[in-house]
Q: What sequence folds into this?
């Protein structure tokens, strides 16, 4: 019989488990680690731009596993021309847009940060929450769709035993779990795997495409047959181009990877002289990463489209055909036999499985930069491992809902990608407009219109994508608002800073009890402060010789949650005044009182007047606008932060 674990051992295990889960960066469970107090750019070591390109490229490059088949099915003989239009949009649309995003938001905030700055207060926060819904749609569906597609390649391989047929869901869940396990281990391990998978996969594709192009060159009749098919279906070159423009939105999956690229910028190694405010080297290396990925993918997409369209019969692309969703794999088996084809399948399966790594990396970098700062997620979401477990669990649920069906998730994936790219184009256009750069305004507004057209076309043809994104948005908004209300009585400040005059007011009062009058200024003249001091002394029976300090808090942006509190000292006649700004008045006052306690080693006392009005109305005003019944909420914040009543600053209400 096994002996029971003693309570002491259980406690030690629980503490070690908690420390490991909340470690700010990836490290072994036996090492010490504390959760960071705010999002950090440090997820292990920085890496060369080409290594990070491989991490984001496992998603971008893995689309070669299914993109040629999707293009042939959507555009038929027009596939190479529609793909060429997609490449022009990639190189001269998406690439310039995201180079601008990288320069403006070099810490992994992505295009969301640009829109957040353009739209402050609650409207900006709600917009970011909605866009985070599309981020979740894009990244989570990337994980589940790629794993499901990898499973399809496993099941459809001719050398795989029949036992695996019909086991799509269990195999996909195993692949998702393995991906989560890699990220529980660390970013360094994830990048190492990504580099190996990308290099092998691109080399194998180069062999297949090169052999296919040689085959076309030695059999010129294939080109003649393709031209004949084009002319039979479309007599006019103008009509041919027009139809290509109409069908290219169906190829939008080939645009994935840019948003993830800027989301993982903190992993890119910069120069030794980079500063945190302007990391010039990191930005420059991110340019190289984005540009290299775009040109590499453009080459492979165009050549693979040509080879598969010219060499594979159209009937094989249809549902049930051997090239459906795996055109290059079909050619690998046809050109080199089943053994080479199986090697290619293994490489495709591996990169499709690990395509979710770029999405997981993006989620781990971008979500902690917004929701915890808004107070719309618990503090443990600043740590990496709990988030990995949460995202893995969500991916499990999505896989079960869609039964690991690749086609059913394709619309949601394309919708997420296109909405994010459209929002990035719009943000860059607005930024150019504010700087008054006419050339950029024309260029980026044109690109924005193209992305809007592509997004709307995709939503009309595949409306299930916007429904799935809507579900993610609703879930994020509801849980975020609940979290915001739940955390409303937290201290909500990183630190308190005082200027010299403010600090001198506190220090000259240390011999007596520090007494603070919470005051909302009107005229701000000598007579107003005189009347307020007289009323306060009478209501609270304070001696005339007890010094008093006025404390005035102005609400800055109530949609923000936490930040540094800066206190300025002011003198109006004989009256000493501390002035500060904060997202919420009660929380700011509580933080200042606790800071005074630490500076003076004495308990300060604050004096308030009763608020007149409906308590529920004041509660809503506090949640939305940072004001309300100040005295009661300040006392509640102090009670939440300081459990010992004897160490709690005094709150007095009169009037």
A:
């Amino acid at each position: 019989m096994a002996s029971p674990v003693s309570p002491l051992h259980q406690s030690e295990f629980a503490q070690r488990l908690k420390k490991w889960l909340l470690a700010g960066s990836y490290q072994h469970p036996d090492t010490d680690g504390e959760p960071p107090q705010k999002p950090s750019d440090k997820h292990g070591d920085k890496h060369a731009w080409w290594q990070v390109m491989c991490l984001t490229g496992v998603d971008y490059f893995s689309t070669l596993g299914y993109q040629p088949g999707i293009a042939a099915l959507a555009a038929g003989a027009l596939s190479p021309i529609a793909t060429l239009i997609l490449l022009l949009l990639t190189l001269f649309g998406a690439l310039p847009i995201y180079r601008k995003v990288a320069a403006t938001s070099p810490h992994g905030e992505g295009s969301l940060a640009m829109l957040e700055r353009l739209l402050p207060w609650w409207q900006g926060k709600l917009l970011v929450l909605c866009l985070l819904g599309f981020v979740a749609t894009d990244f989570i569906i990337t994980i589940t769709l790629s794993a499901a597609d990898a499973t399809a390649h496993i099941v459809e391989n001719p050398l795989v035993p029949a036992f695996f047929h019909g086991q799509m869901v269990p195999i996909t869940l195993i692949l998702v779990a393995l991906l989560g396990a890699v990220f529980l281990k660390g970013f360094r391990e994830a990048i190492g795997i990504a580099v190996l998978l990308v290099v092998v996969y691109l080399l194998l594709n180069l062999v297949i495409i090169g052999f296919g192009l040689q085959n076309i060159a030695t059999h010129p009749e294939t080109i003649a047959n393709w031209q004949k098919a084009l002319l039979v279906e479309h007599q006019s070159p103008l009509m041919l181009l027009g139809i290509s423009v109409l069908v290219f939105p169906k190829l939008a999956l080939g645009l994935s990877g840019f948003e993830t690229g800027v989301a993982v910028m903190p992993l890119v190694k910069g120069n030794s002289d980079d500063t945190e405010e302007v990391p010039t080297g990191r930005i420059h290396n991110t340019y190289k990463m984005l540009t290299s990925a775009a040109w590499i993918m453009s080459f492979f997409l165009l050549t693979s489209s040509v080879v598969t369209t010219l060499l594979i019969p159209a009937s094989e692309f249809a549902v049930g055909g051997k090239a459906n969703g795996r055109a290059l794999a079909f050619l690998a088996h046809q050109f080199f036999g089943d053994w080479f084809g199986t090697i290619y399948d293994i490489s495709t399966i591996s990169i499709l499985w690990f395509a979710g790594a770029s999405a997981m990396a993006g989620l781990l970098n971008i979500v902690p930069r917004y929701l915890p700062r808004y107070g719309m997620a618990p503090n443990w979401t600043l740590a990496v491992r709990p988030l990995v477990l949460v995202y893995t669990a969500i991916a499990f649920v999505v896989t079960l809902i869609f039964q690991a069906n690749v086609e059913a998730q394709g619309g949601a994936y394309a919708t997420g990608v296109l909405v994010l790219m459209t929002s990035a184009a719009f943000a860059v256009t607005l930024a150019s407009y504010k700087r008054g750069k006419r050339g950029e305004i024309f260029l980026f507004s044109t690109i924005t219109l193209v992305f809007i057209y592509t997004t709307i076309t995709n939503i009309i043809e595949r409306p299930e994508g916007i429904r799935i994104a809507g579900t993610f948005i609703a879930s994020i908004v509801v849980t975020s608002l609940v979290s915001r209300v739940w955390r409303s009585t937290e201290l909500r400040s990183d630190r308190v800073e005082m200027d010299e005059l403010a600090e001198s007011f506190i220090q000259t009062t240390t011999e007596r009890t520090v007494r603070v009058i919470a005051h909302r200024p009107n005229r701000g003249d000598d007579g107003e402060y005189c009347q307020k001091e007289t009323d306060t002394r009478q209501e609270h029976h304070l001696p005339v010789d007890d010094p008093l300090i006025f404390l005035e808090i102005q609400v800055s942006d109530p949609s923000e949650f936490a930040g540094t509190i800066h206190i300025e000292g002011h003198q109006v006649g004989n009256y000493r005044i501390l002035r500060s700004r904060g997202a919420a008045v009660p929380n700011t006052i509580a933080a200042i009182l606790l800071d005074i306690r630490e500076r003076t080693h004495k308990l300060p006392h604050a004096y308030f007047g009763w608020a007149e009005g409906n308590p529920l109305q004041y509660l809503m005003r506090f949640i939305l606008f940072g004001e309300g019944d100040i005295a009661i909420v300040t006392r509640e914040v102090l009670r939440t932060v300081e459990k010992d009543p004897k160490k709690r600053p005094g709150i007095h209400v009169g009037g």
Notes: The first helix runs from residue 7 to 21. The CA atoms of residues 61 and 297 lie 6 Å apart. Confidence is low (pLDDT under 50) at residues 1-10, 24-44. The beta strands are 496-498, 515-518, 548-555, 565-572, 575-582, 605-609, 650-654.
